[in-house]
Write a structure and sequence with these properties.
With 334 residues, the chain is α/β, with parallel strands linked by helices. The protein is 50% helix and 11% strand. The protein has 11 helices and 7 strands. It has a 7-stranded parallel beta sheet, sandwiched between helices. α5 links the parallel β4 and β5.
């Protein structure tokens, strides 16, 4: 095909992509079945991870739950077992490459091959850059970004071999545009978005159309992770209230089950990303100040300091077993 004809074909496909995207805004796409799939969710001990696990369990998937907090993770597993779901829980620090590969081998031996991977786990240091210990910065990058490499390398090969599977990356709107004071979190989520997009291109390039990917970029979610974060009161009240976790997961699940490549929640985030991409830097700063987004993390830092002063430990400092490959007494899949 000569280049002129190919250019016309590409233009047609681009227009059709716009049409299809527009239709998804107004027409509810039928959802695929995940019954019988083996779904692994990281960070399943609470927050969005627990809700994702419940959603997949209700649809008949077998659940594999990973979390650094053994007690919280087992609580999620017990709740799902009580509803009749097939579940197995594993304690794993996904920031440690060896732990990921070791626990992945246990999953393959005890459960089977994972066909749906939900990379959900995440942490935030909760301190401005110059007050943040290096170890916490490294922890943010290791959990929010580097772990994606180890998780995908552990489970993607089987998906590619069978041309069947789904990789879900729970990133953040702060992986698409940033704000002041949480450089570690923004950098790690930008990394997560870049990793996911490159991975998606690679899967397309090798022709594995049966392996799908979905990038999830929610706005602030009411899970307590960013407790205290506030933008301008009028804007927050009428336009950008923090998302309820169940709503966020419901929208994300629909995106996954309809094989959407990406979802921003709420939809207003698409406009924010577009404006950030085309406006001059000074204009972006001006809008941030109007929205109160330039200092939105200051109340969050104050809340975090109060928690530390009250001797609350960091949520990711729970002790791990000496050997994470030793069975923790979790029940086998029914």
């Amino acid at each position: 095909m000569n280049i002129a004809a190919e250019l016309v074909l590409v233009a047609f496909r681009v227009v059709m992509a716009f049409v299809q995207a527009a239709l998804r805004w107004v027409v509810r796409t039928p959802e695929k079945s995940v019954a019988g799939e083996v779904c692994l969710v990281t960070g399943a001990g609470g927050g969005l991870g627990r809700l994702f696990a419940r959603e997949f369990a209700e649809r008949g998937a077998s659940l594999v739950l990973w979390d650094i907090n053994e007690v919280a993770n087992e609580a999620t597993a017990e709740a799902l077992r009580a509803s009749g779901a097939r579940v197995r829980a594993y304690t794993c620090d996904i920031s440690r490459r060896a732990d990921v590969y070791c626990t992945a081998e246990r999953v393959r031996a005890e459960v089977g091959e994972v066909t749906v991977l939900v990379n959900n786990a995440g942490v935030v240091a909760g301190r401005p850059l110059l007050e943040c210990p290096d170890e916490l910065i490294e922890r943010s990058m290791a959990v929010n970004c580097h772990a994606l490499f180890w998780m995908v390398k552990a489970f993607l090969p089987h998906m590619l071999e069978n041309n069947h599977g789904h990789v879900v990356t729970v990133a953040s709107s702060l992986g698409l545009f940033s704000t002041a004071g949480i450089e570690d979190y923004c950098a790690s989520k930008y990394g997560a978005v870049g990793f996911h997009e490159s991975l998606s291109h690679e899967i397309k390039a090798i022709g594995k159309d049966g392996v799908n990917t979905t990038l999830i970029c929610p706005y602030l979610v009411n899970t307590g992770m960013f407790r205290g974060c506030r933008i301008r009161k009028e804007i927050e009240t009428y336009l950008l209230s923090p998302l309820e976790p169940q709503y966020c997961v419901h929208e994300a699940m629909h995106a996954v089950l309809t094989n959407r490549s990406m979802i921003c929640t709420p939809r207003l985030m698409y406009l924010v990303v577009f404006m950030k991409s085309i406006l001059p830097w000074d204009a972006v700063v001006c809008i941030y100040r109007f929205l109160g987004a330039d200092k939105c993390m200051y109340p969050f830092f104050a809340e975090h300091r109060r928690g530390l002063n009250n001797n609350q430990k960091e949520p990711w400092t729970d002790a791990l077993p000496t050997n994470p490959c030793v069975d923790n007494g979790n029940a086998d899949l029914d």
